[in-house]
Design a protein that fits this description.
The structure is a homodimer. By secondary structure, chain A is of the alpha+beta class. Chain A has 15 helices and 10 strands.
Chain lengths: ~400, ~400
């Protein structure tokens, strides 16, 4: 940690040639108000548009020229800028990201050009059935509250947002104490610290003193009431999500819920895939999910099917949810679910990008960063009773039903 | 190579914990007739449905239980089944893939259940603007010829295909001489050969003798005439592709075309990204592409934009194509394009899955498998004159214009 509160967390990987770098900022769509709705994502775009040292083209050229991968994303609770390069190009990556993040100019003409790009991006999401149904679900769950709004904003909020509002948002949230730099692969901790000290040099990133702001606690969200929403679109398929309130991120039952989710709809051997797709041929895509936020969460099942199958799909899904709620899963499913989660975790360790993602997100959003061994131990410790208990709890909650289609 | 003509190609990676395995079959949608249209993809689905040793559930369980990734895809000229597992689970992966590929039962009730799944998958593609516009482009380029048809087939062809037709297709194309097994990562060549001998054991996979069928030569496709097609859909965005005939896979100019494509629309520093998105804010997504087949190819530009921007987008894209055709690219763009391609290649070497993909596809479709060093040397040797020459050739060809939107 630097005196400014900026945290740096790294993991050296023997034999790696690539280095992955991420800069995580604890700001996302839930930090917005009605007038700044979409500001986090707008900022993510604008930070690529230039500083007093580099034009947008210079930023693009820098990492393109070395074949690096370079991108960013905005979520409800954080924003991440990330790059994957050869180890020898890490200084370049820290230089470019540090420059962008601490020294963006947010020029008026860039704000206007990027506004049009984002309006087009929103139109693209409107054409994507998955995005439409997930946004509808968030709206049913949390309404106009901070977690209920789409991350990209709306056409109206993006059209009316001013440069001054965006700049205030930037100054308020892009602060060293609200930021984590994570790196993994062909990296050396001391060298990363040196590079960050050298390239995150504007404003008070180095000069100031502050304590890290710590994981977001959120305000406890109101309990999710059940509800149903439909959006009529002339698609060929119906996209449907059946969901309920889940658990927040730091709830210890998340490991049991992970195994439950795997057994229910987490792979081709899962109950839902077997019943909906293999036995009945009702749908090409069917899966379950669990999402976690600081103070809320969702669990659910997503299916895309032909319109005349919708009733049967819903019936089969509800039967499977009742069965798993009433009886839990079998010992064999428990063993398989653990193997699937742990095997996937171990396979992910080879990749510097996934290690960097794990580290950076964990440091930003959890009070404790668990090591891989600890995570595996926690998964391994899950019992049949844990599964039954969390299933009874979450799937006993009021049902949310989001349907998009003709 | 085994006496049956089955080829095995592997690459051991020091320090890798994962092993990636692929089985490549030289069959795809271009090998189909009007009555078997969609059979390659239908088969890809059916091979997961069981053998006399394993039910569909057994197949799913096997690799899920160890956390492996396990999937398949069908292209116009080949089909690939692939798995990524921990090195110690490689025997299991070879066992399951060998069993599925050499011993599928293709039972009548599975054919019918999977038919419904594929009809739903086709409906999903119909809801995806990218898929709709790419299928329209292929139709404009090659009409009802073998390369012009969508890979998944049509609702009509899938509804009417019989089990007997699919089985004949299977027996004809899933032959050892038409197949390559590729593996990379924590693998040992002799052990992979031993495993393949043990688990690809049905029919004449081991007993027969044959020469490998060699790379597909195709029949030279008729030259692509220009044309324009529009499909009206009530999407928010217009998706448009402006394209022309490209070059076949074994054309030596593919390296020059690769660099040209990178400079034109291959990254955020490319001309199209800069002009269409950065300067004018006309579209969120804009990129260029080059696709190659045994005897044909396409080059083009894809953009998604709001309907009222379409005319300006087309004008800007046409201006950029004329400029690059008339003047080629700059020395700086040449250096950057090479750096981008070579850097991306080197970064891809860390991943056992991408190495396996490169090896298997190359062995199946090229007369010679070039080593990574050779590929890098060929990219490095591209000159400004090579670029100008290929640009003048391909972008001087008749224009194809596919538009999908409101």
């Amino acid at each position: 940690m630097l005196p400014s509160g900026l945290r740096i967390i790294t993991e050296q990987m023997a034999g790696a040639r690539s280095a992955s770098l991420g800069v995580w900022i604890g700001v996302g769509s839930r930090d917005e108000t009605a007038t700044t709705h979409g500001a986090s994502h707008f900022l993510e775009h604008l930070l690529f548009k230039g500083t007093d040292e580099r034009s947008a083209l210079d930023i693009s050229i820098a990492l393109d020229a070395v074949g690096g991968e370079f991108n960013a994303f905005t979520a409800k609770e954080y924003t991440c800028f990330h790059a994957r390069v050869l180890g020898e190009d890490l200084p370049l990556a820290v230089d470019v990201l540090g420059d962008m993040i601490t020294g963006s100019l947010l020029e008026a003409h860039d704000v206007d050009a990027e506004r049009d790009v984002i309006l087009d991006e929103i139109a693209m999401h409107e054409d994507d059935p998955d995005d439409v149904v997930q946004n509808l679900l968030a709206d049913l769950a949390w309404g106009s509250g901070p977690l209920g709004r789409p991350i990209a904003g709306t056409t109206a909020s993006i059209e009316s947002m001013t440069r001054a509002q965006i700049e205030r948002f930037y100054r308020k949230h892009y602060r060293p104490e609200n930021m984590v730099v994570s790196a993994a692969g062909a990296v050396d901790h001391a060298e990363v610290v040196k590079l960050v000290r050298r390239f995150f040099r504007r404003h008070d990133f180095l000069a100031g003193t502050a304590e890290p702001s710590g994981p977001r606690t959120g305000r406890r969200q109101p309990r999710i009431r059940g509800g149903e929403g439909r959006i009529s679109r002339p698609f060929e398929q119906v996209n449907v999500v059946l969901a309920a309130e889940g658990i927040p991120r730091d709830d210890d039952r998340r490991f049991a819920l992970g195994v439950l989710n795997t057994a229910l709809g987490g792979g081709t051997s899962s109950r839902l895939f077997q019943e909906v797709r293999e036995h009945r041929g009702l749908a090409y895509s069917v899966y379950s999910f669990a999402s976690h936020y600081a103070d809320s969460g969702l669990v659910g099942v997503a299916v895309g099917c032909l319109p005349d199958r919708l009733d049967e799909v819903l019936e089969v899904v509800r039967v499977e949810l009742s069965r798993i709620t009433a009886h839990g899963i079998t010992a064999e499913e428990l063993a398989r679910g653990k193997g699937q989660l742990i095997g996937g975790l171990v396979l992910g360790l080879e990749d510097s990008a996934s290690r960097m993602m794990r580290l950076g997100k964990a440091e930003l959003v959890y009070a404790d960063v668990l090591g891989i061994d600890e995570v595996m131990a926690r998964i391994d410790a899950v019992t049949l009773e844990d599964i039954r208990s969390v299933a009874t709890d979450v799937f006993g909650r009021p049902e949310l039903l989001a349907i998009v289609g003709p």
